[in-house]
């Protein structure tokens, strides 16, 4: 069978069964590696590191990488588009349903519960990013309380938070400033 | 400018500047879709985001599909979804082609350490907006607190959390509200 067709089929399947964001596709990517041998497990781990630290949805990054390893540039395009086709169809169906029933008070009631949950999920995700960038749990485990806080990083965080709240510039401005500062004064 | 092109370009920017996956795209979505182009409201964004969690697929792509569809139907949805993944395809393909051990280059690693701090600050400011929009009374605060606690300290799946919160909302407003 044509490798591009196989690639499309495998990533289409991965897309449908990935619920809860890009990293949830990981078990399926391991499975593809085991069955098809398109990339190795250690390549997959490198892929995760790169996907997490480059811009874009992590799932799309991983599909692109796997597709490229398998069949070059065309492979990367086929794999990432195949990944999103199934969920997109489902989302379009839900969206049409939503438009019709938006004013329904039971639907409104469900969203009354969902909105604080979204705020909570993002708060938890934020805690995860902060734990990596601002704190050193290793230092705390070693009994070094002063080393727990990354002082330089916390100071930059405080300044950035103030600037974000005060100036309302496009997010890219803050990202660029911090990238440059990161290179000049490593955190 | 053509609205389809605008959707594509806007989501291209969102995809190309979102570090750390779907969760961290909220500040960009608020800026581009709510403040700049008025494609949807803050409330719509939260609804789409919650649904994007429990539908299969990537949260970023699902949210883009919802917003594109609301703005310009199915074709709008396709433009937005392709926009959000195109930067990934370009950037990752280039990295895969040319650079082995890309993230081990010291300057790159340091730049990313800096970027993560900016991402923290941006997400905190998003959370403040989301909190003001979604948590307006005590039951809503309790849902917020439980979800935050469960997501930080346990391995419970986000899908379960979202479904539970929806059921709780239904119980509080639809069933409880009648009495």
Describe, in plain words, how this protein is organized in 3D:
The complex is a heterodimer of chains A (187) and B (179). Chain A has helices at 3-17, 26-36, 41-53, 58-101, 105-133, 137-141, 145-148, 151-167, 171-184. The longest helix of chain A has 44 residues, at 58-101. Chain A is mainly α and 187 residues long. Chain B has helices at 3-17, 26-36, 42-54, 59-98, 106-134, 138-153, 158-175. Chains A and B meet through helix 1, helix 3, helix 4, helix 5 and helix 8 of A and helix 1, helix 2, helix 3, helix 4 and helix 5 of B.
Report the structural category of chain B.
mainly alpha
Number of domains of chain B: 2
Biggest sheet features of chain B: none
Number of helices of chain A: 9
Largest interface: A-B, 93 and 107 residues
Give the tally of β-strands of chain A: 0
Strand content of chain B: under 5%
Fill in the keyword field for this structure.
heterodimer; A: mainly alpha; 81% helix; globular; B: 179 residues; mainly alpha; 2 domains; 7 helices
Explain briefly what this protein structure is:
Chain A is mainly alpha-helical and 187 residues long. Helices cover 81% and strands 0% of the residues of chain A.
Chain-wise SSE layout:
The complex is a heterodimer of chains A (187) and B (179).
Chain A: H1 3-17, H2 26-36, H3 41-53, H4 58-101, H5 105-133, H6 137-141, H7 145-148, H8 151-167, H9 171-184
Chain B: H1 3-17, H2 26-36, H3 42-54, H4 59-98, H5 106-134, H6 138-153, H7 158-175
Helix pairs in contact in B: 1-2, 1-4, 3-4, 3-7, 6-7
């Amino acid at each position: 069978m044509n490798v591009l067709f196989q690639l499309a089929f495998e990533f289409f399947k991965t897309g449908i069964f990935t619920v809860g964001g890009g990293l949830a596709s990981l078990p399926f990517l391991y499975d593809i590696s085991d069955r098809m041998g398109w990339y190795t497990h250690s390549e997959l781990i490198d892929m995760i590191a790169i996907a997490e630290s480059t811009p874009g949805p992590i799932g799309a990054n991983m599909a692109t990488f796997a597709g490229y390893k398998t069949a070059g540039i065309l492979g990367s395009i086929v794999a990432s588009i195949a990944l999103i086709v199934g969920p997109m169809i489902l989302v379009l169906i839900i969206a049409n349903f939503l438009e019709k029933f938006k004013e329904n008070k039971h639907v409104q009631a469900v969203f009354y519960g969902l909105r604080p949950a979204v705020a909570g999920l993002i708060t938890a995700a934020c805690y995860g990013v902060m734990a990596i960038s601002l704190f050193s749990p290793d230092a705390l485990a070693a009994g070094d309380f002063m080393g727990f806080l990354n002082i330089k990083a916390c100071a930059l965080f405080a300044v950035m938070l103030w600037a974000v709240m005060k100036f309302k510039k496009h997010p890219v401005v803050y990202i660029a400033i911090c990238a440059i500062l990161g290179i000049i004064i490593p955190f | 400018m053509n609205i389809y092109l605008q959707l594509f370009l806007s989501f291209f920017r969102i995809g190309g500047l979102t570090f750390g996956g779907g969760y961290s795209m909220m500040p960009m979505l608020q800026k581009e879709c709510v403040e700049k182009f008025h494609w949807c409201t803050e409330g719509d964004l939260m609804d789409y985001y919650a649904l994007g969690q429990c539908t299969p697929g990537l949260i970023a792509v699902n949210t883009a599909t919802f917003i594109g569809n609301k703005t310009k139907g199915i074709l709008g949805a396709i433009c937005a979804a392709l926009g959000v993944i195109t930067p990934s395809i370009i950037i990752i393909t280039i990295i895969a082609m040319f650079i082995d051990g890309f993230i081990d280059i010291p300057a790159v690693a340091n730049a990313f350490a800096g970027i993560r701090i900016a991402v923290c600050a941006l997400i905190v400011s998003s959370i403040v907006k989301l909190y003001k929009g979604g948590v307006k009374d005590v039951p809503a605060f309790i849902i917020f607190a439980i979800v935050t606690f469960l997501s930080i300290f346990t391995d419970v799946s986000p899908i379960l959390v979202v479904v539970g919160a929806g059921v709780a909302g239904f119980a509080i407003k639809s069933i409880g509200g009648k009495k």
